[in-house]
Amino acid sequence: MKLQVIKGDITQLQVDAIVNAANTRLMGGGGVDGAIHRAGGPVIMDECRQIREQQGGCPTGEAVITSSGLLAAKKLIHTVGPVWQGGNTGEKELLKACYINSLKLAEANKLKTIAFPNISTGVYGYPKVEAAKLAINTVKNYRSESVSLVIFVCFDEENHRLYQHLLDQ
Ligand code: AR6
Question: What is the pLDDT of residue 68?
Answer without folding.
Answer: 98
